[in-house]
Amino acid sequence: MSWDFFVPVCVGDLVKTGGINQYVVQDVVPPKQLPPYLSKFKAALRSQGPLCILEHFDTGYSVLQHCNSVELGVKEDTLELLVQVVSGLAASLPAFLASTSVSADERKEKLNAVKMSVYLLCKLTETFESDSYRQSIVTAPGKGGKKGKGGGEGLLQWDSEREKVLQALVQLLQLDIRSLWSLSLVEEEFISCVTCCCYKLLENPTISHVKSKPTRDGIIHLLGVLIKKYNHLLGAGVKVIQLLQHFEQLSSVFAQAVSVWSTEYGVRAIIGEVIREIGQRSSEELAREASGVKAFASFIAELGSLVPELVIPNISVLITHLEGESHSMRVAVCEVLGEILVRVLCGDGLDESGKADRDRFFDTLQEHLHDTHSHVRARVLQVYTRIVNSKALPLCKYSEVMELAVGRLMDKSINVVKSAIQLLAAFIAHNPYSCKLSSADLKKPLEKETAKLREIKEQLEGKAPVAVIKASELWAAMEPELLVTVTTELEPTSEAEREQDEEEDVEENKEAEDDRATAVKVAQYLRVNKYRNAVRLCMRAHSCFPKSEMFASLSTLTAETLMDTLALIFKGSDEDTSELSQNLPPTPQKEAEKEVEDGELKKQEMLVQYLKDTETFALQVERAISVINTMLYLKTTSVVQEAVQFCVTVCEFSVANSVSGVRKMLPLVWSTDSAIKDAVVQAYRRLYLNPQGETIRTKANTLVDSLSELMVDASLGTIQCVEEIVQEFFGSGSNLQSTVVQVLWERFTGKRETSGLHRRAAVLLLGMAARAEREVVLSNLDTLCSVALGEKVTEDFLLARDAVITICSITDHVRQSKGAPFRLPQDHQLFTCLTQAIADGVVMEDPYWQSFMEQAVRLLYFMAESPDQLCTRLLQRSARLLLDQIAEGGELNKDASQMQDVSQESNEQGEQVNCVCLAQLLALCGCVAFWQVSHLERSVSAELRRRRGEKEEREEKEKGPSSKAKQAANESAMEEELGLIGASAEDTEAELIRKICETELLAEENLLSVFLPLLVRVCSSPGRYSHPQLTTAACLALSQYMMISPATCEENIRLMFTVLERSALPVVRANAIIALGDLTVRFPNILEPWTQNLYARLSDNVPSVRQTAVTVLTQLVLKDVLKVKGQVSEVAVLLIDPEPHITSLALNFFNELASKDNAIYNLLPDIISRLSDPERGMSSEDFNTIMKQLFSYITKERQTESLVEKLCQRFRTAKTERQWCDLAMSLSLLSMCERGFKRLQECWECYSDKLTEPGVYQPLLSITARLRRGAKAQFKAQVDEFEKRLTAVHTRGLENVESPEMDEENQKGVGSSEKTVMCTPTPARGRTRSKRGQAKPSVSGRSNDSFVTPQKSRKSKKPAITFSSDEEEDEEDAVMADSETPKVTTPISRTSRRARLRN
């Protein structure tokens, strides 16, 4: 073969005249003539094999040249032929390459065939890929998901063909075809041809999809072959970076590719190349390439997750990006560090270098827990969560990271808070300390073990020599006894004893090898008081070591020479003493003892340290619990869900105070957010309703124990929420239900020993179960009566109360039954026990009797037939018992009817009657009065309606079918008539009930009327009846009596408000507020003139009274019982209350009020006027705090515009500098827009004369600064001009500044510039100065009814009030005199003129 094929840079280069022996295309076939040429190509392939490409290259080139005009079928046929050629070459080349006898022509022929076929295949593949991409854009789904015409068929075929192309190329290039080139140097153009095709395929947007996995894997492996065998390493690194910059979706693809190249193909250098390129990018470059930064970050993170061990050598390059501005890169690097710590630098087998790297990486992560970007902080917390879950966090880091995680709970970012909660939950779930974390439980063991450690240390210190004793001193001490031993040993002995002693000595001293060792042995014997052994050894030493200097003196064996030798050995000369003592090894026994002691000390130190770490960890968890518990009621659903899951986790690990969080999240079962509700229900099901145990009995006991713990000391709200959970359990059809009920009955009846608290919890749980299944309680009613309401009822009124609550759960009032009412006869055992217990308790001083009595009277009216008769007898019996108690003190017995004279004879009786017993009797009277009214209006009224309904149904049935035809003829008329009849009947029933309440309940023949004068007497004479419990009970009972009829209410309303204002007991004032709130709902017209007195309690000195007042007023206002007026400013003051709970209640009030249309918008001007009143004396800081909250509810542009005008107009009526400053500050709090700014300019005359005050000027200046941000050029110019005008007036005064308005006034001749200033008008003659809390009359020329507070009406001075409840006055005189009314913060206007005329 005389020519060579060179891969061209451009397709058109092949038709140009080339160099010497360079192949040039001779014949470019026109598109229409291509099919017959392709047929020849196909035939040649069959006959000649893959080398036919040498002859038919021009045909393939012609298809490539005319690719835009050639039919699709022709191109597909060409592609198929080229794939076959490449595959044929891949099949035939192995044998050719293995052959040793190959000529140069044959090698050139094969090389040209390879280059031609690969070139055509790659270029045609790129063409198909471009066409496919264009087609996917044209046929992309539009609206409704419908594809364009002809969409997708060719596309799908190309997907399958693309895989064949890649497979053929991989098969060919995997062979060692480099030997076809001279010197095995593959030309760069050939490599570029293949790699360009691969990178072209990677640009496809769908390459990262799951369906493209075969294509993706093919490209990765093809590039891997090129990198490994064809020196494409540098080119691949550069190309990866370039493509990542432009195609963000390739990040995961290239991460997978690089990991495959470095692991399967062993080209680890590629990781260093790519990471080095990314690491060298500056912050400025990354800032310019937003999409590139995301792709780089994603690539690094995913590469770290795939091959973290290969990233470590290059991590120093990446860490530089932690100091850069791109938060995405910081996140990626932190995630890589996390993967390295989890999968590489973990475990105990690390060397010193690995431990140093690990600690450095942990320190880096900890630094970025305080990163400036919230996304980085959140992701670092998530990295730590993964580390903790993988148990890769060193124990020494637990406390430090835990502390940081708790701190992140206060982060402003929701995502950071969520991640922090997840991390804390992971810490608890995978903690290495204990399955139960309670600092209180750990305190005693820690103290005990610390004390034990202290004792061990003291013992060891005691055993150690306190002072060094010299050898000479020891010798002097032992010399007398040693001399006796020496003398004894020198005496003659029998041969048998001598032989036995010699055998023993030989065995003991066989280890001694030289004279020095023998001397050491002798010294050891002397030290442990083995004198006999020391003497014998010394005697034999001379014969064993005759030349030794130590034993030379023993040549003549006497007591003196032996003692001298022993002294020399023990004491030695002055020089040898220290050396000898150092060479004396400790005895093996002492060594063993020392090792044991050191081991015990070390173990004890480790135990104490473990307990300390555990306690520290538990304290941090408890601190986290207190913070997370406050997040259960945030508005962000996801945070609440995380907080709920955390509460469950800490409860499962028995962390101290974990039950508080579980209880706190209980009310969320009523949440309107279904996600939160489901999370809470699932949490309680996991904690309480899915108990663990081997048997059903064990599971039932566990479930009851868990629920009982939740019920102990629970509030009423908590019990109601638990009830919802328990009802769900009993409604779920669990196989534990019957066993659980049995366990509860056993606990309640005392068959199983249990505490009183758990007995009460058991009976309450039975009541909850009875709501789902009535028979649970109804079938055991006698048991309830005998156990809780029997003879021992007076010993435990709390158990009796809870038993009564349980029985109430089977009544119609709770179950809302629509059938005949479920009631029991009066002589039933239940009512006998109840009345007996109530009456006996009246004359007892039990603090829990009253709560029992209230529930018992409620049950009497719910379940008894004719409960009014029962209660009448109960009152008679209770009053007689009280009179009998008085009689025992020396008074004569009186009949119950004589109680009418109590009010006249209280002077005599007041000294003998027990105040607590009298208070309990009055409380019983009030309770009976209240439930009597409730019984009439609910039970009796409902029964009348039910009977009327049944009667109407019977009448319809009696009419029969004959009347139906007539009804059909006059259907509309009959319906109207029936409707009127129904309405009339209901009105009649209501009138009957009302008449009974007004005329019969307090008639002389009714026992309730007997106690009313006594109640009035006690309430109106606080000096005489000063006992707190008596006063409290009397006031509460009187308010319950006032619920009976309007007449009773009107008679005693003045007295009740006097109690509210003047009572010294906070509990009385709080009860009075609640009672008056109920009366306001029942008799709104009577209570309307007294509204200002209710609002006055918002400024009470006692926090509990303020809390009660704001709660009651919130309910009244939000339910539209009270009209929202200017007195709401008193609620606004509570936004700065020192008590956080009261502040939250006030905030909730305004949050709810804001949901009503324009409510806060209408009230704001009056609130501002009242709060800025100089007589109130509110500080500027407090005023700003309140206004900032209130103005946050103003969100509509029209409201803002209107408020700007209203507030500007108020400048004219404001009389003090402080009021000007408050109005200006209020203006600055508005989120003003262009229209609001225009209105501010229009009202220039209202405030321009006040601008010399800094308190007015600075807030208005802040408005201009805020408006200038992001403003358009034209509007910005207006703002700048307005700011200059403000500054000019502020610095020089209004009269010295020329303005357009003044010029116009001068031209018109109205007057001088001084007259253009609007001065504050003087008050009209005769108008009194407005008092504190009363609104100022508006002098604005604009009519605005919603904002102008009406002027104070003229009224005559009101007469002073007396305590007597018999005094009757007109309604207008119901207001207390100014001298007797307590100092309130904002009294409201008196009753309207229309109301006074009506009354």
Major sheet, described briefly?
A: none
Tell me the helix content: 55-70%
Based on secondary structure, the structural category is: mainly alpha
Shape: extended
Radius of gyration: 50 Å
Keywords: Cell cycle, Cell division, Chromosome, Cytoplasm, DNA condensation, Mitosis, Nucleus, Phosphoprotein
Subcellular location: Chromosome; Cytoplasm; Nucleus
InterPro entries: ARM-like, ARM-type_fold, CND1/NCAPD3, Cnd1_C, Condensin_cplx_su1, Condensin_cplx_su1_N
Family: Belongs to the CND1 (condensin subunit 1) family.
Structure overview:
The protein starts with 33 loop residues before the first helix and ends with a helix. 67% of the residues lie in helices and 0% in strands. Helix 1 packs parallel to helix 3 and helix 58 (1217-1229) packs parallel to helix 61. With 1399 residues, the protein is mostly helical.
How are the SSEs placed, and which strands pair?
Layout: H1 34-48, H2 53-65, H3 72-98, H4 104-138, H5 153-173, H6 188-202, H7 213-229, H8 233-246, H9 251-263, H10 269-279, H11 283-288, H12 290-306, H13 308-311, H14 315-319, H15 327-343, H16 352-367, H17 374-389, H18 398-408, H19 414-429, H20 439-463, H21 471-490, H22 495-508, H23 515-527, H24 531-544, H25 559-571, H26 574-582, H27 588-629, H28 637-652, H29 658-664, H30 674-689, H31 696-711, H32 716-731, H33 737-749, H34 756-772, H35 775-778, H36 781-788, H37 797-808, H38 812-815, H39 829-842, H40 849-863, H41 867-888, H42 906-909, H43 915-959, H44 962-969, H45 971-1000, H46 1008-1020, H47 1028-1042, H48 1046-1062, H49 1066-1082, H50 1084-1087, H51 1091-1096, H52 1103-1118, H53 1128-1133, H54 1140-1154, H55 1159-1171, H56 1180-1191, H57 1197-1213, H58 1217-1229, H59 1234-1242, H60 1244-1247, H61 1254-1268, H62 1273-1292, H63 1300-1308, H64 1393-1398
Helix pairs in contact: 1-2, 1-3, 2-3, 2-4, 3-4, 3-5, 4-5, 4-6, 5-7, 6-7, 7-9, 8-10, 8-12, 9-12, 12-15, 15-16, 15-17, 17-19, 18-19, 18-27, 19-28, 20-27, 21-24, 21-25, 23-24, 27-28, 27-29, 28-29, 28-30, 31-33, 31-34, 32-34, 33-34, 34-37, 36-37, 37-40, 39-40, 39-41, 40-41, 40-43, ...
